[in-house]
Design goal:
By secondary structure, this protein is mainly alpha-helical. It has a single domain, classed as Ferritin (Up-down Bundle). It is built from ten helices and no strands. The longest helix is centred in the first third of the chain and has 27 residues. It is globular and about 55 Å long. Bound molecules: fe (ii) ion (FE2) (2 copies). The site of one fe (ii) ion (FE2) has 6 residues, from α4 and α7.
């Protein structure tokens, strides 16, 4: 582990401070059914993706990886709880939009497959790709909505995702050392993001079209974060701890 201070205290404290936030009231401040129907279906897919994920915590508790300790596992447990809160918020959004929740989806299955197939480091890499996808998507969707609760909730979720991005980058920064692991990280990250982009652009094409969000705009947003992650993981000075380098990920 780099540095003397426990690098996970920052994230543990941040997530603990946010742990008691109540869910927003199930109340429509405008007629959401006037918004494109495809948006409800699209958010239902993200709602499914935000659910579950508890196995990564038990895996972290059992891990013997360098830099993984009880504080990291605790911070990870709070992170999973925040994702489940996002799932609850998105469920409210889907209902307000007149849509229905779903129990199964091919992109969610792919994501779950990726999470189950691999060890903790690659599992966090998959989660990091999901953070980039979600962060960009929620902000783009919000940019096309009029001022309303739904827009505010999506921006709130995106703000959480930005700190999750920093958290996962901090973990990977503690694991990626030496030229071989840097090469492996860079290769896997770009492959994973490329697959994620294709999958999301295909699965959410109707919502993107109905909200007049051009694919090039989505790609440009992803590209920016994709490079931000590479910089945050590979280009931080060895002296800077995970919390100390977090600002470079914030947008
Ligand atoms: Fe989330
Ligand atoms: Fe997240």
């Amino acid at each position: 582990m780099r540095g003397n201070a426990n690098p996970w205290e920052h994230f543990k404290s941040l997530f603990e401070q946010r742990a008691d936030r109540p869910l927003p009231p199930l109340k429509a401040d405008l007629d959401y059914t006037q918004l494109p129907r495809s948006l409800a279906r699209s958010l239902a897919v993200f709602q499914l993706g935000e659910s579950g994920g508890g196995t990564v915590v038990s895996q972290a508790r059992a891990s013997r990886l360098d830099a993984v300790d009880d504080d990291y596992a605790s911070a990870l447990a709070h992170f999973v709880a925040e994702e489940n809160r996002h799932a609850s918020m998105l469920a409210i959004c889907v209902r307000l939009l007149g849509g229905e929740l779903i129990r199964s989806n091919w992109t969610a299955k792919l994501f779950v497959f990726g999470r189950r197939l691999i060890g903790l480091r690659l599992k966090i890499l998959v989660l990091l790709a999901a953070e980039v996808v979600g962060l960009c998507y929620y902000r783009l969707i919000a940019s096309r909505l009029p001022p309303c609760n739904l827009r505010n909730w999506l921006l709130d979720i995106a703000e959480d995702e930005a700190s999750h991005l920093e958290f996962h980058c901090a973990f990977l920064r503690s694991q990626v050392r030496g030229p071989v692991s840097r090469f492996v990280f860079r290769s896997m990250w770009w492959s994973l993001m490329t697959i994620s982009e294709i999958v999301v652009l295909v699965d959410h094409r109707r919502a993107l079209r109905d909200l007049c969000i051009d694919r090039s705009e989505v790609r440009a947003s992803w590209r920016s974060y994709r490079q931000t992650v590479v910089s945050a993981v590979l280009e931080s000075s060895p002296e800077s701890g995970p919390a100390g380098s977090a600002a470079c990920v914030s947008m």
